[in-house]
Amino acid sequence: MATVERSPYLLTAARIQDLSEQRFQHPLHTKAIRYTKSMSEGVGLQRLGLHLVRVEPGYATTQFHCHHQEEEFIYILSGQGIVVIGSSTYKVGSGDFMGFTAPSLPHSMLNPSTTNLVYLMGGERKPFDICDYPHLQQRLIRCGDQRHLYNWTEDNTHYLQCWP
After folding, report:
1. Could you tell me the fold of the domain covering 23-126?
2. Which residues of the chain form beta strands (DSSP E)?
3. Dihedral Cα 6, 13, 109, 62, nearest 10 deg
4. Assuming Cys at both sites, which of 75, 105, 137, 151 could form a disulfide with 120, CB separation 3.0 to 4.6 Å?
5. How far apart are CA 117 and CA 59, in angstroms?
6. How does pLDDT run across 107-154, given as a tens digit for each residue?
7. Does residue 103 have a cis peptide bond before it, meaning omega lies within 30 degrees of 0?
8. Cβ atoms within 10 Å of 34's Cβ, excluding its own
């Protein structure tokens, strides 16, 4: 059997190490900053996103949110975090897994420790999604590359929440 140097289906540990980190600051949360290496693009995945994420001490991963259409998951590789899921708070660490169906309870995570929090984050890439930010009372609607952020109305009559 011949050995091939590179394959479009394989990202070796060395290639992942060489991927550049992309800094992402959540537009609705100034203390939500993460550094991401996208692995799914390296093997041509189009309907699934998979990212190696690093969050520095004292920072959050995202704004408290939930999706209507896209499922997502997080697998902690190293470090410790505090995750809020719905109205409950949990300590998480290396080896812990979280999965969020669509729709799901809103969730977010914080790195309260003195070391980096590192995890795999993955999820669907549907052409359309609705993301609610309940603490901000806002809704993001994404259709392709278009994104529109709306404030909830006072009576919320035309906004359905995505959690029970």
Report:
1. Jelly Rolls (2.60.120)
2. 22-25, 33-38, 48-55, 66-67, 72-78, 80-85, 88-93, 97-100, 107-110, 117-124, 128-133, 138-143, 146-151
3. -40
4. 75
5. 10
6. 999 999 999 999 999 999 999 999 999 999 999 999 998 999 999 876
7. yes
8. 24
CA angle (76 as vertex; 107, 95 as ends), nearest 5:
120
Domain positions in the chain are 23-126
- What is the rounded distance in angstroms from the CA atom of residue 81 to the CA atom of residue 58? 10
CA 32/CA 60 separation, integer angstroms? 4
Per-residue pLDDT tens digits for 42-93:
999 999 999 999 999 999 999 999 999 999 999 999 999 999 999 999 999 9
